[in-house]
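User: Sequence for DNA mismatch repair protein MutT below. Tokens please.
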Amino acid sequence: MNSMENKKYTIAGTDIEEVKKQNAKSGLSYNQVFEKLAKERKEKADE
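Assistant: Structure tokens for DNA mismatch repair protein MutT:
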């Protein structure tokens, strides 16, 4: 069986699993950064 048959692609031909791997390596998302900054600000304000 060809490995191409097991992979999932978007209509445009993007390899979905490859995108997920790259995203995992890319670091924090915008929302994660926003949440982290908000938490740090709250902690600093509570001091």
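The mean pLDDT is 88.
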